[in-house]
Amino acid sequence: MNRRALLLFTIGLVLFGTIARAQNTVYLAFGDSITEGDFDTNTSQPGYPPKLQKLLVNAGMDASVENYGLGGEQTTDGVTRIDTALALAHADILLLMEGTNDIYHGLSIETTVQDLDTMANKASDQGLSTVHATIIPFRPDARVNSDNVLTGDLNMGIRSLALARGRELADPFEVFLEQENLFETYYYSGAGDVVGHPNDDGYQLLAQIFADVLLDVDSVPPVPVSVTPADGLQNVPPKVAISVKLADFGNDIDSSSLQLLLNGEAVAAKRFTDGNVATLQYTDPDGLLGVYKLSYTAGDLASPANSVTRRVSTFTIAGTTFLQGDLDFNGRVDGYDLVLLGSRFGGHNGDGLYYIGFDINGDGVIDGEDLAILANNFGKSTF
Questions:
Q1: Please, what is the end-to-end C-alpha distance for the chain in angstroms?
Q2: Same domain, 198 and 304
Q3: Are 295 and 343 in contact (CB under 8 A)?
Q4: Tens-place pLDDT, residues 48-98
Q5: Partners of 357 in the beta sheet?
Q6: Contact criterion met (CB below 8 Å) for 174 and 223
Q7: What is the spatial distance between Cα 307 and Cα 284, in angstroms, rounded to a whole number?
Q8: Same domain, 197 and 296
Q9: What range defines the domain where residue 239 resides?
Q10: Any idea of the CA torsion for 147, 153, 159, 162, to the nearest 10 degrees?
Q11: pLDDT per residue as tens digits for the range 98-120
Q12: Is the separation of the CB atoms in 52 and 65 below 8 Å?
């Protein structure tokens, strides 16, 4: 080979290598222990990032997913650590899922959302786009937030942030809620998990959720970005202006599918739709009384369409009274209240079993006296 041919061959190799590197997409998976892969029963490749990489490669993409998860991290720490991750990973796209530990340690939702925005902005300054992700549900036996009210509120904040900034969204929370036997099938069941981590199947599901977004597969229906009244709110005015704002991060919303439901019954809500965003509004002309479960039904224009009926809030109207023993405040003392009392029976003030809301007579112990009060009102209704 003469010198000219050798020179051209060398230039060709350099160009080929440059093109090959340019074609490779590097994803920076940033988050806490659920990104890192804690409690994954597949210990050889823990967490969703290696599983996501395999899904992307199998789909024909030249992609790598770098795992920068750190167990126990809160977003207040993540806003600093992400500088190092961005410098080391040389990534193209940030996959950002964090906030579980913020809820566990009592940080405000506003702080968490602001921290996530700061991290995404830092990524943007380095030329990366961001895919935000909602956090997965806490286990029913978690030490805090076992009812997932705070999880729902934070995830609406994350969705609102993604919508306002024009960023993509992966929605594990919505997809996980749709799974049958969620905690038995997709969550780690051993000791030591205080909030709820996926098992190998759960991490595989998490990887698929991210893969759908990155491969432009719409598998999620419209989701709530704001709800009024908020979940768990008490003393709500009888003529409260009820509102549910929805967004779809894959396709436009099918306006004909939209319904607002109170305690399972459709109401004559006003509907406002603008592409992938819709708002449902309703005020009862006569005023409400009691406890209400607020739900919506919505679908999108994907093919096949994604549709859902989802409860988003339970609220109590001011002036509503409850019988002693109505532990779930649904207006009737029934078998479910008995189950609730049984779940804490024997608890004393100061131990982990005790819950003040089930100590009906307020004597510091959940015992037979509380059971007797409940039994006296069993089968009775207040509204």
A1: 94
A2: no
A3: no
A4: 999 999 999 999 999 999 999 999 999 999 999 999 999 999 999 999 999
A5: none
A6: yes
A7: 26
A8: no
A9: 223-316
A10: -130
A11: 999 999 999 999 999 999 999 99
A12: yes
Q: Which class for 34: exposed (0-12), middle (13-18), buried (19 or more C-beta within 10 A)?
A: buried
8 Å CB contact between 249 and 162? yes
pLDDT of residue 4: 44
Residue 253 in contact with residue 335, Cβ under 8 Å? no
Query: What pTM does this model have?
Result: 0.84
* Residue 352 Cα distances to 174, 284, 345, 355, angstroms: 30, 41, 12, 8
CA distances 246 to 175, 201, 336, Å, are: 16, 29, 32
Per the listing, tokens 């009384």 go with 289
Specify the DSSP element, H or E, that contains 30.
strand 25-31
Same domain? 205 vs 255: no
Domain total in the chain: 3
Cα separation, 102 vs 149, whole angstroms: 14
Q: What single string gives the DSSP state of each residue in 254-285?
A: -GGG-EEEETTEEE--EEEEETTEEEEEE--T
Tokens found for residue 285: 């002309």
Task: List, in order, residues 6 or more apart from 107 with CB less than 8 Å away.
Answer: 74, 75, 76
pLDDT greater than 90 at residue 350: no
> Are 14 and 65 members of one domain?
yes
Asked if 75 and 145 sit in the same domain, the reply is yes
Distance of CA 118 to the CA centre of its chain: 20
Q: Report the C-alpha gap between 262 and 283 in whole angstroms.
A: 11
The closest of 329, 312, 290 to 229, measured between CA atoms, is 312
